[in-house]
């Protein structure tokens, strides 16, 4: 079957999609977006986390056919997504999130490559690097998408809020402390910028 | 495999009537796992995401009509007052990503004894609104679970909503697992006080072939509370009464040994959870509010 949907602001068409195929497979194998990682395939690890109409979900548990006509943001589009959010007032008040209309209006700008290499980083991505929160890097894309969404909803998270928001993302390298540092750092920078 | 994409509830019912083997998919958090692991190759997948009313709820006089696909996240955010037990149970489901997709309709459709919503539904009192092209019927929650991963739905029926009684007293939910997130229950327990009818209802998860109520324990406790005038005098529950209630809840289990825990551990843990949830809810009822917050 054919599936039409929007990824990182660009309309995409995937052909010959098997009916039982996951959104994750379509992103990685058909659209050349390998940022979302494939690990547990059962929603345990969160490494395939993307935003579907603004909501963080495990893309391995979304059937490809279910995304017809919908909006997906992957880690490849995160920097541009965060930039446009900041330009549109962001979420300094704490009670917003991304509306479906906002998500629909958003379009990514062309970058050096399709996968986003050479582009600018989002604040959460920069914070992960600065805090040393990336070790092998496999869990990082899912953590970035989940953490970015939490900071959009809740710009001044407590440690408990961060742990809760990232409870569906497994990391087997760092022991999470550096990841916690990175999210705290991004939150602090976000509040300084306002 | 065929992917059926009804745009309305009527179309969904027609598709299910035409293809009774079609597997409904909403949040996908159970169905996609089975497909990803090749445990299941359904002939038809019936996508319900385009049926908007399944993600809506209505708060009525007596009950909440909860659309089958309302995600757990929405229940936690919006229905904590009306459905405190289910809101606590929802908070124990997996992770934010899963709670953003999964809902009670899927829990009921899968009918796993370990489904997190079941003990809360049993304790609160609920009816499942099942519909087919032949018509609509309300299945009492006590009659819904018919076996391990089996339920009372006919092959052409879909779950439209669940009607859950609004809380008329404190409710609690407790779940045993190795960590707070991403855990399939070793066992779980839901308890609801119903001061209007002066009854207590329970629900046990993951400790029998189906989710069950501890009916003998409920009857014992209802009689003990009545005899002691507890509903009126608001005294603390006599420790011997709480212990007997806990023992009867353990006895209501019919668990197995498996990778998550042994049968004897499950019996033991259900007794502990029964005593604790009874104490928490009763303290809350007495107005001391010592433990009105959930542990989830």
From TrEMBL, chain A:
GO molecular function ontology, one term from the record: 2 iron, 2 sulfur cluster binding
Keyword hit for Aminoacyl-tRNA synthetase: no
PROSITE patterns referenced in this protein's UniProt entry, alphabetically: 2FE2S_FER_1, 2FE2S_FER_2
Keywords: 2Fe-2S, Iron, Iron-sulfur, Metal-binding, Oxidoreductase
Domain 2Fe-2S ferredoxin-type: from-to ranges: 1-78
InterPro entries found in the cross-reference section: 2Fe-2S-bd (IPR002888), 2Fe-2S-bd_dom_sf (IPR036884), 2Fe-2S_ferredoxin-like_sf (IPR036010), 2Fe-2S_ferredoxin-type (IPR001041), 2Fe2S_fd_BS (IPR006058), Beta-grasp_dom_sf (IPR012675), Diverse_Oxidoreductases (IPR051452)
Protein known as: Oxidoreductase
Lineage of origin: Bacteria, Bacillati, Actinomycetota, Actinomycetes, Kitasatosporales
TrEMBL record, chain B:
GO molecular-function terms, A-Z: FAD binding; oxidoreductase activity
SMART domains documented for this protein: CO_deh_flav_C
Record-annotated FAD-binding PCMH-type domain positions: 1-169
SUPFAM superfamilies per the UniProt record, alphabetical: CO dehydrogenase flavoprotein C-terminal domain-like, FAD-binding/transporter-associated domain-like
Domain of life: Bacteria
InterPro entries xref list: CO_DH_flav_C, CO_DH_flav_C_dom_sf, Diverse_Substr_Oxidored, FAD-bd_PCMH, FAD-bd_PCMH-like_sf, FAD-bd_PCMH_sub1, FAD-bd_PCMH_sub2, Mopterin_DH_FAD-bd
Pfam families: CO_deh_flav_C, FAD_binding_5
Keywords: FAD, Flavoprotein, Oxidoreductase
Coiled coil location: none
PANTHER family: XANTHINE DEHYDROGENASE SUBUNIT C-RELATED
Name of the protein in its database record: Carbon monoxide dehydrogenase
Naturally occurring in which organism (per UniProt): Streptomyces olivochromogenes
């Amino acid at each position: 079957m054919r599936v039409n949907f929007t990824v990182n602001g660009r309309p995409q068409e995937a052909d010959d999609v098997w009916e039982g195929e996951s959104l994750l497979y379509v992103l990685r194998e058909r659209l050349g977006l390998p940022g979302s990682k494939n690990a547990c395939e059962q929603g345990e690890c969160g490494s395939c986390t993307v935003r579907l109409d603004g909501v963080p979900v495990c893309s391995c548990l979304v059937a490809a056919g279910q995304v017809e006509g919908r909006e997906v943001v992957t880690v490849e589009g995160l920097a541009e997504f965060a930039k446009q959010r900041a330009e549109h007032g962001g979420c300094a008040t704490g009670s917003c999130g991304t509306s479906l209309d906002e998500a629909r209006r958003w379009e990514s700008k062309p970058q050096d490559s399709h996968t986003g290499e050479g582009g600018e980083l989002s604040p959460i991505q920069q914070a992960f690097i600065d805090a040393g929160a990336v070790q092998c890097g496999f869990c990082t894309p899912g953590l970035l998408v989940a953490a970015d969404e939490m900071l959009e909803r809740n710009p001044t998270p407590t440690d408990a809020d961060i742990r809760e928001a990232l409870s569906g993302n497994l990391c087997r390298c760092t022991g999470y402390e550096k990841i916690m540092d990175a999210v705290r750092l991004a939150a602090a920078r976000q509040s300084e910028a306002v | 495999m065929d992917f059926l994409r009804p745009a309305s509830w009527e179309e969904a019912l027609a598709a299910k009537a035409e293809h009774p083997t079609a597997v409904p998919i909403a949040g996908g958090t159970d169905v996609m796992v089975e497909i990803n692991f090749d445990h299941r190759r359904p002939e038809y997948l019936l996508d319900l995401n385009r049926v908007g009313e399944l993600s809506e709820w209505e708060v009525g006089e007596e009950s909440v009509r909860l659309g089958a696909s309302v995600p757990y996240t929405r229940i936690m955010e919006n229905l904590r007052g009306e459905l405190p037990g289910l809101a606590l149970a929802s908070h124990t489901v997996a992770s934010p990503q899963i709670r953003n997709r999964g809902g009670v309709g899927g829990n009921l459709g899968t009918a796993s004894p370990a489904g997190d919503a079941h003990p809360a539904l049993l304790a609160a009192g609920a009816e499942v609104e099942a519909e087919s092209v032949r018509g609509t019927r309300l299945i009492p929650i006590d009659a819904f679970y018919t076996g391990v991963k089996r339920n009372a739905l006919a092959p052409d029926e879909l779950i439209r909503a669940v009607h859950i009684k609004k809380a008329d007293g404190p409710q609690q939910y407790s779940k045993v697992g190795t960590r707070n997130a991403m855990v399939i229950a070793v066992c779980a327990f839901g308890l609801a006080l119903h001061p209007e009818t002066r009854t207590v209802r329970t629900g046990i998860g993951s400790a029998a072939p189906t989710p069950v109520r501890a009916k003998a324990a409920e009857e014992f406790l209802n009689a003990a509370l009545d005899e002691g005038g507890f509903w009126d005098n608001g005294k603390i529950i006599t420790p011997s009464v709480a212990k007997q209630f806990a023992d009867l809840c353990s006895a209501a289990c019919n668990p197995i040994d498996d990778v998550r825990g042994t049968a004897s551990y499950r019996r033991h843990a259900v007794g502990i959870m029964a005593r604790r949830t009874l104490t928490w809810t009763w303290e809350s009822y007495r107005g001391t509010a010592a433990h009105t917050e959930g542990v989830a």
